[in-house]
Amino acid sequence: MFRRTLAVALALSLAACGSGSDPKQSADAVSPTDPAAVSGEITVLTNRTDLVTDGTMQKYADQFKQLYPKVTVKFEGVTDYEGEVKIRMNTENYGDVLLIPNTVVTDDYPKYFAPLGSAADLSAKYSFTDKAKVGDKVYGVAGFAYVNGFVYNKDVWTQAGVTTWPTTPAEFITALQAIRSKTSATPYYTNYHDGWPLSSWSQVVGSVSCDPKANDNLVKGDPWAAGADLATGDTLLFDIVKNKLSEADPTTTNWEDSKGQIATGKIATMWLGSWAIAQMQDAAKKAGKDPSVIGYMPFPKQVDGKFCSVVAPDYQYAINSHSKNKAAARAWFDWFIDKSDSATVNQAISAVKGAPLPPAMQPFTAAGVKFIELSQAESAKLTKVDNASEVGISKPDYRQKLVDTARGAAPGDLRGVLADLSKRWTEAAKNL
After folding, report:
1. Following DSSP, what letter does each residue of 176-187 receive, concatenated?
2. Residue 23 gets which letter from DSSP?
């Protein structure tokens, strides 16, 4: 879904020349106070093509229009969101409201997005605003946040005799081996072919060490040193594949099919954000299964006897600095994040401070899982190091190579793969 060479080239192009706009010319997208005075047509870009196709987004637009009758909202679902939107951002035509592509450097946000308000005001209302803060302004707000863990079929795990969450990577491997020997399910499914699900393995950062500064520390040290968060996660993924605990041919995996397969017990486990729970539960309903068969567990690592799970922001919504209808765009922006049930439906954590946790998180809270929010103080530098190193932490390429090496389809071993990542990353950090 995301390709390293293209992503780096485009990111460097964006950073170098931008869209020709002057940040000083980008007026604030102020929240409107009188719905009757707001009018215009806006286009909202989204990566959720499924929600555009099935009419869900239009239902939201219809609800919104009851409050803002003079505003028309149109949606554009983009399959290769990162690739296509980055290209369009070299023009002024990239929607009125959009999700900020991952490879846009934070320092460049003022070139493309309208300020939403002061950091003090926005941080009082929303979580995770530091990631989109430039100076004293905020340029993006997450639609919602999620935790990361393993989606699993409870019946399959119980059939294998595993009724408690593994507390170490070794225990997790043992559990998957029990599933392989005692059930007919594929113990773990990589979703290698679609690619993007593999990138979620980067979200082990913070969950392994239980350190709120784990993300900032990536630019200061070696993320693949022994015991480091990424090294721990990547080693577990490698060992899963090496021990033949994943699908026989990862090149044939199918994301959409995997939902039904885990719901019906053909697949036992997948590492995904908590946003996936609702989709797997829906697949269970469609298959005539009880949605409660879908479980969720944290990464198998404890600190001081407790699991830790990072509450991470999803894509951040922003308003195009070139939009001709900023008031209408901000009206939609505010309504969708603050008033719609998007976070609840996705079993996600609302970015609005004080909002209740979704039902899917109840097992985590009952087990005393510690939720942490990662500092984003070094997010701008992190993106620069990632682009310069061509590692692509938020892309699937290097983990596809990891899987290929583990299954013998590519030369080398785990030590060599991690050493290569370490070298490229630390050299890029040093040069910057």
Report:
1. HHHHHHHSSSBS
2. G
Task: Give the distance from CA 38 to its chain's centroid.
Answer: 33
- Return the structure tokens found at 16: 């170098």
CB atoms within 10 A of CB 347: 24
pTM score: 0.77
CA dist 426 and 219 (Å) reads 8
* Interval 35-69: pLDDT, tens: 999 999 999 999 999 899 999 999 999 999 999 99
Q: What does the buried/exposed string (b/e) look like for 174-196 if buried means 16 or more CB atoms within 10 Å of the residue's CB?
A: ebbebbbeebebbbbbbbbbebb
Q: How many CA atoms lie within 13 A of 377 on its CB side?
A: 7
CA distance 262 to 268: 6
> How far is Cα 318 from Cα 327, in angstroms, rounded to an integer?
13
Whether the CB-CB separation of 114 and 343 falls below 8 Å is answered with no
Beta bridge pairs of residue 350: 144
Q: How many CB atoms lie within 10 A of CB 124?
A: 10
In the numeric block, which tokens belong to residue 145? 């946040």
Gap between the Cα atoms of 138 and 397, Å rounded: 31
Contact 205, 374 (CB under 8 A): yes
pLDDT tens digit sequence for 235-291: 999 999 999 999 999 999 999 999 999 999 999 999 998 889 989 999 999 999 999
Rounded to the nearest 5°, which phi and psi values hold at 268?
-95, -40
Q: Classify residue 288 by burial, with Cβ atoms within 10 Å: 0-12, 13-18, 19+.
A: exposed
**What does each C-alpha distance from 101 to 6, 80, 89, 235, 384 come to in angstroms?**
13, 11, 10, 28, 14
